[in-house]
Amino acid sequence: MKEKITIEEKIKKIRQGRDLSFLDLCSIDDLQKSDLELIFSLTREFKKQAKTKFSFLKNHTIFNAFFENSTRTRSSFELAGKKLSADVINIAGSSASIKKGETLLDTAETLDAYQSDVIVVRTAYSGVPYFLSKHVKAAIINAGDGLHEHPSQGILDAFTMTEHHKSLKNKIILIVGDILHSRVAGSLLRIIPLLGGKIRIASSETFIPRHLKKTFKCDIFYDLEKAIENVDVIYNIRVQRERGSNGFIPTIREFSKSFSISPARFAKANKNAMLMDAGPIMRDVGIHSALVPHQRSFILRQVQNGLAIRQTLLWLLIDRHDKRKKSFEII
Ligand code: CP
């Protein structure tokens, strides 16, 4: 008689002989296509077992060091760690020693001294996760750094796109909104080409960094009506007032008139096109309220997938760290 295997054993079997190619997740540039294949295959399993508590990360410690506000990212990393039986500790911006004059590095080294396994960091400064990864033994996960990247968001978005479209090969993904101030856009611009997708950018000239066309493979449009034709995904990027976006456009209302996604505009995309937004959503500024519950709006699916993606990332990174501790010593 065939022996019954547990769900944990089944998940372990899926990853047998496969591992990530990186120790810290600071940027999508750290990833190879094979990493995404591994992450996606495990995520599908974690997603099927959304109510299950696993023991994969028992006796492991995760710090969420969020020096900027977050709802989705922080709660999903916390929940993901808890669902894998890790001890999860949140260091919120308001209680941070940084406010008392401690450097970010001293704070990170303090968390590292507890022999923590992962430090998930969100910061207003681009490059901080990369800098910290060179100084602490814990794995660093970038949960958003300044105007640079938000890689776990990019991964969950790419996963969500492939769930619907199966493959992104030759699919057209339109990213519309405040590209200049968006770290989500930074990760999407890197991950979509890795999966064979084509990128269109639509925004006002002032919201598109000058280097974009040279650095990334993308087509730039200043007219949303033209950009939206025949696209397979519309990804809205909100105007980021907290980063000073107001200084780049006449008014939010004015920008919204030209670049918000209305039902009429959505109808110009392909029949099977997805509507996406990392959130927080700005109803009727970025996406019209009537479209939020649309059957092809994937906003809450992104949130749901974010949990399973982060379960996968935490497990894989901690396991890889256990096997291959960073080679430097903290002085
Ligand atoms: N998508 C995202 O980063 O949302 P939060 O700011 O709520 O984490």
Summarize the structure.
The chain has 331 residues and is of the alpha/beta class. It has helices at residues 7-15, 33-48, 72-83, 104-112, 128-133, 151-165, 183-194, 212-215, 224-227, 252-259, 263-266, 299-323; strands at 61-66, 87-92, 118-123, 139-145, 172-177, 198-202, 219-221, 233-237, 274-277.
Secondary-structure content class: alpha/beta
Task: Write the CATH architecture name of the largest domain.
Answer: 3-Layer(aba) Sandwich
CATH topology label of the largest domain: Rossmann fold
The CATH superfamily label of the largest domain reads Aspartate/ornithine carbamoyltransferase
Radius of gyration over C-alpha positions, nearest whole angstrom: 20 Å
Biggest sheet features: 5 strands, parallel
Major sheet: arrangement of strands: 7-6-5-8-9
> Which ions, cofactors or small ligands are bound in this entry?
phosphoric acid mono(formamide)ester
Strand segment tally:
9
Low-confidence parts = none
Number of domains: 2
Distance between the termini: 57 Å
CATH class of the largest domain: Alpha Beta
**How much of the residues is beta strand, in percent?**
5-15%
Q: Specify the overall morphology.
A: globular
Query: How many helices?
Result: 12
